[in-house]
Amino acid sequence: RLINVIAHEYCHLLNFMISNVKDQPHGREFKKWAKICSTAFAHRGVNVTTKHTYEISYKYIWECTHCGTEYKRHSKSIDPARHSCGKCKEKLVQVKPVPRREGKGMSEYQRYVKERFAGLKKERPEMSMGEVMAVLGREFREMKATRKEENIVLEKEAEDGGLDLKDAGFDFVVRKLDFLNLGSE
Known about the structure:
This protein has helices at about 1-15, 30-40, 110-125, 130-160, 170-180, and strands spanning about 60-65, 70-75, 90-95. It is about 45% helix and about 10% strand. Helix 1 packs across helix 2 (about 30-40), helix 3 (about 110-125) crosses helix 4 (about 130-160) and helix 4 (about 130-160) packs across helix 5 (about 170-180). The protein has a three-stranded antiparallel beta sheet with strand order 2-1-3, with no helix packed on it. It is built from five helices and three strands; from the N terminus they run H-H-E-E-E-H-H-H. By secondary structure, the protein is mainly α. The radius of gyration is 31 Å and the shape is elongated.
């Protein structure tokens, strides 16, 4: 495939440099060079055409909500708020990569950062944003590890019969529920 692509591009060079064609990249002159090149390198399996036959993997794909036409791009160059389907003028939706769900809510870590960032930055104004985030990340990991250890201890005590949930003030249940991410705030 690579040799075919190089041969194709070489034909563009010949078309431009020798035939002096600047406005029809795949016109009659290009096809003449493609035939010459294909014949000369047939033993290598070269067949220069004006269209490739291999599949291209695109990072971004949008689809029309009405007619299903797909628009494939290597960059995120389509803005569904500004662009519409070229065939039927209906809305486009991104299908690859699947966009994040809106309204999903913040993760526990995002909530932690939101609650602690301003306070830590105020306490330590000399710290850069990256340093503040590193501290918050470390604190969050430590908090999660501590919570997990406490839950293991409480579960063990509950299994052994040594923990009365009423005496514990239902902290065990609260911690368990707090630890679970139920998808809502």
